[in-house]
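Something for you to look into today, if you have time. I want to see for myself how the chain folds. Leave the record below and I will have a look.
***
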Amino acid sequence: MNGKVVVSQLGARMHYAVPRIFAAAGRLAHFYTDICATKGWPRIVTSLPSAMFPAPVKRLAGRRPNGVPAKLTTVFSSFGLRSVMRHMQVKNVVEETSHAIWAGSLFSQMVARDGFYDAAGLYAFSGDALEQMRAAKQLGMWTAVEQMIAPRNVVETLIEREKQRFPDWSVTSQHNPHAETFANREKAEWALADFIVCPSEFVLKHVVAEGGAAERCVLVPYGVNSGSTADRTSRMPGPLRILTVGEVGLRKGSPYVAEAARLVGGAARFRMVGRPAVSGEIAQRISQWVELRGSVPRSQVGEEFRWADVFLLPSICEGSATAVYEALAAGLPVITTENTGSVVRDSIEGFIVPVCDAQAIALAVEQLAANDGLRALMSANALRRAREFTVEAYGKRLLAALPVSGPCRSDGRESIPALPNRQTG
């Protein structure tokens, strides 16, 4: 084995941060993905006038894993296009889960068949990893699976509670028969993994509660880079500007944003940026108190952060929301929940409010609206905190949490010896 790592990843998650990290460190044996602009037919699309292609195809062709050599990359473009076309037909969370199982298992099987390039380790993502992890373990490789969000059973439990509270917010009320299948895939991946990479304490504690081995969990928060250098210690006159970025729906805590906006009244302006996952009737109701911007191109999200004075994300369940890292890098105080899995510290970079508590959100907003010195202090603290969570810092944490080569568990059951600095924060 060559001491390097194979990374497999569906989509362009976090701008291909993980394969880029291993490539920059000279430790990438190979990278597997569905579609990217450096291999296959997307290269042709990028060389022709953009008007020739529909927007979804142009977005696929725009996936660029910068820093990952094309010679180390294998794409499954036909599968990727088929997967995208199937996903476009998805109407609700039940169909979404069914699609995720289909796409994840088929992708994982293709990686396993293609091979591992004499690598020492495999890094894959939850739900997409099981078959390739089995094949890697048979070759004596160590395996790492990243648990991107809280375990599926936890997600289902928390969202079901919200459906009971807000039945008219739910797009579908039917039971999700595929959730247990997905949860079982996660648990099988944990059983094989030498490392269960968790982006937050929230995720880690729930992985352990659901049966993941605590001694194999590693805590590795994410990181983002920002070109923003603006001084946020002063703000425009008028009501405090509150921004939320993410899908408008139950998981992101959107009902509590709307209720907090109603409670605060004219002291603040609330804006939501993201795809609405609610009925037109609910969207109209929200619009009484919150400006709904809908989906905004990624290139324009920075303008939304510049508009804002405060960032709000009262999620019910996340992994470690990258929008919060982006808000800190933009110098925004953050109001969020423990369930968002953020690196925000209560009363330093913002406020950690109880989950499902619109009154607590409103109180935090009112404090910041009434005390501009506090807002300015938290803004400065946010920028300092963001410097600890850049992409470069994320790369150092991730590489420190994984071995250069071996050791691995030969039978997929016994724990590997503890490594120094296993949990890095």
The first helix runs from residue 17 to 24.
